């Protein structure tokens, strides 16, 4: 049998995500890929993979899985939960540390506790055939991942490596800061002129809350309505992940990675690419405040973030593998 | 209206040619989109032409907004009157009641007979202004004035694949089953989005489309032929 993880219980929304699907937005296919690019990148680094190797992304709560391979190496990242191993030697591995598990081991990742999404990477990556040049799942159109859908009980998710050696494990020290209270930086535009000055002030001063209507397409926010200057419909134009569109209700929606490629609501601002993962991590009920920066600052922030990820990877602590069976 | 550059964060910008739906404006959009693609500007990863603008997606780790904008401005300066060729598709459509759940209602609300609605819809040549909303979904215009209706007040949760729809002066085809708020007045047995094809979307922005009415029997024949992979859609190159 091919090496795999068997899904004993999938959790509310578990999909395969990896490299985004780039090059098809002109025919209406969104990029997809991880809500939290930073955590996927680091989870993959913990098991020695390339940054966007296919991994499992789960929203709000993790899955229960069984190891169907002689040995696998896993790492969880993006939340404060643990990999709870139920085997002859039950134990809990915190997020941010790799672990080698053996055939028949069953593990559970419960509530993500503080985070809206998290990632489980396996050494070698999941063996998912790319669809339109990407393994990432886009559920609405049934593209990518395992059968184009979220994982279900009994699914067998194949792993691209037959087994793994009992070599050193890796750990992120200190664990990454999820920055759940950080202000989200935005660049104003492209349609700031469709809002009153008061509307722009509201966006930049109010405290918003992630509503229960938050999914991979967009995070609807609760909070003060943002005032339009005139009509709230525009002739459709392009949108990007991070676009903050404001429909007639005045309640902003931050478009996320499965966002439609075009839209007919004015966009007051765009979340900078460095901060989009921070939005992706915020659970319903968590607060969100915005602050405006220039494009130049946004570009510097993204480069600084990539440099920091590289430093974190260079500093991974290595320690002996606990399971040499 | 002058061309405007609109900032969309640190990974995209929009080149806006106007704020309206207009063939001449859309021609400029499509020509500029072609020019951007041909220019292979470093760092630009993809472009999305819309009714009235082109969205430029770029990789902020390989270029920056100012450099992208400067390169696009140079292209705009050299923007010539390059003639654009288009593909003209003939798309078979069955307008019989089983495939047209809203035809009666559209006829009632527009004060036309169902046959007149069909004639008004199928006698025109449409332009694909843009593809968006869902994979392969073509926004086509312009619809006959007399068929202009707002979207349904109660959007359907499931619109079947292949449905021919009208709303707000536009017509469209649902490429995949999805929610939808447009009025359904027919169906095509063709697959608008098919992963077995490259590119998977049948229609692209700038294409021209004619709808050819077919009977329910022909619909089934074509559907079977499409499923078997031996149906060839009629397509020719034309000057729009």
How do you describe this structure in short?
The complex is a heterodimer of chains A (325) and B (240). With 325 residues, chain A is an alpha+beta fold. Chain A contains 4 helices and 23 strands.
Structure commentary:
- The complex is a heterodimer of chains A (325) and B (240).
- Helix content of chain A is 14%, strand content 30%.
- By secondary structure, chain A is an alpha+beta fold.
- Chain A has two domains: 173 residues, no CATH class; 110 residues, Cyclophilin.
- An eight-stranded mixed sheet of chain A has the order 21-14-15-18-17-20-13-22. Chain A has a six-stranded antiparallel sheet with strand order 7-6-9-4-1-11, with no helix packed on it.
- The longest helix of chain A is centred in the last third of the chain and has 20 residues.
- With 240 residues, chain B is α+β, with helices and mostly antiparallel strands.
- Chain B has two domains: 74 residues, 2-Layer Sandwich (Gyrase A, domain 2), CATH 3.30.1360; 153 residues, Cyclophilin.
- In chain B, 25% of the residues lie in helices and 31% in strands.
- Chain B starts with a strand and ends with a strand.
């Amino acid at each position: 049998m091919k090496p795999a993880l068997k899904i004993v219980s999938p959790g509310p929304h578990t999909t395969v995500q990896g490299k985004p699907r780039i090059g098809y937005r002109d025919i209406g296919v969104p990029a997809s890929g991880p809500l939290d690019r930073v955590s996927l990148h680091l989870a993959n680094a913990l098991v020695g993979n390339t940054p966007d190797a296919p991994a499992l992304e789960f929203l709000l709560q993790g899955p229960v899985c069984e190891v169907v391979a002689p040995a696998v190496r896993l790492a969880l990242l993006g939340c404060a939960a643990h990999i709870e191993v139920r085997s002859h030697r039950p134990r809990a591995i915190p997020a941010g540390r790799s672990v080698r598990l053996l055939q028949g081991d069953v593990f559970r990742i419960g509530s993500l506790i503080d985070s809206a999404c998290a990632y489980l990477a396996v050494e070698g990556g999941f063996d998912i055939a790319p669809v339109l040049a990407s393994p990432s799942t886009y559920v609405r159109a049934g593209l990518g991942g395992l059968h184009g859908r979220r994982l279900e009980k009994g699914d067998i998710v194949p792993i691209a490596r037959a087994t793994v050696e009992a070599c050193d494990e890796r750990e992120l020290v200190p664990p990454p800061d999820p920055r759940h209270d950080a202000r989200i930086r935005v660049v104003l535009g492209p349609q700031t002129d469709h809002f009153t000055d008061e509307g722009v002030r509201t966006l930049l001063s109010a405290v918003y809350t992630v509503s229960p209507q938050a999914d991979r397409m967009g995070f609807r926010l609760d909070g003060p309505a943002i005032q339009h200057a005139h009509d709230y419909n525009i002739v459709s134009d392009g949108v990007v992940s991070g676009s903050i569109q404001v429909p007639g209700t005045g309640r902003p929606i931050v478009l996320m990675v499965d966002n439609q490629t075009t839209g007919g609501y004015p966009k007051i601002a765009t979340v900078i690419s460095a901060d989009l993962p921070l939005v992706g991590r915020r659970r319903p009920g968590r607060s969100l405040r915005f602050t405006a920066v220039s494009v130049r600052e946004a570009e510097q922030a993204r480069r600084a973030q990539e440099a920091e990820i590289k430093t974190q990877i260079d500093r991974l602590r290595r320690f002996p593998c606990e399971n040499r069976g | 209206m002058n061309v405007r550059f609109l900032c969309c964060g640190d990974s995209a910008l929009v080149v806006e040619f106007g704020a309206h739906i207009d063939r001449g404006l859309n021609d400029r959009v499509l020509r500029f989109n072609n020019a951007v693609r041909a220019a292979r500007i470093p760092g630009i990863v993809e472009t999305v032409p819309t009714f009235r603008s082109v969205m430029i997606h770029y990789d902020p780790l390989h270029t920056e907004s100012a450099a992208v904008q400067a390169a696009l401005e140079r292209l705009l300066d050299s923007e010539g009157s390059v003639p654009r060729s288009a593909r003209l598709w003939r798309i078979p459509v069955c307008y019989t009641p089983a495939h047209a759940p809203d035809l009666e209602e559209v006829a009632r609300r527009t004060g036309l007979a169902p046959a007149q609605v069909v004639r008004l819809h199928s006698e025109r040549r449409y332009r694909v202004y843009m593809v968006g909303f869902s994979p392969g979904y073509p926004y086509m215009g312009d619809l006959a004035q007399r068929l202009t209706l707002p979207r349904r007040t109660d959007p359907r949760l499931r619109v079947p694949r292949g449905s021919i729809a009208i709303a707000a002066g536009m017509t469209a085809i649902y490429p995949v089953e999805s929610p939808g708020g447009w009025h359904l007045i027919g169906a095509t047995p063709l697959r608008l989005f098919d992963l077995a094809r490259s590119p998977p979307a049948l229609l692209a922005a700038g294409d021209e489309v004619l709808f050819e009415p077919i009977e329910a029997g022909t619909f089934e024949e074509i559907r079977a032929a499409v499923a078997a992979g031996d149906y060839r859609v009629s397509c020719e190159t034309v000057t729009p």
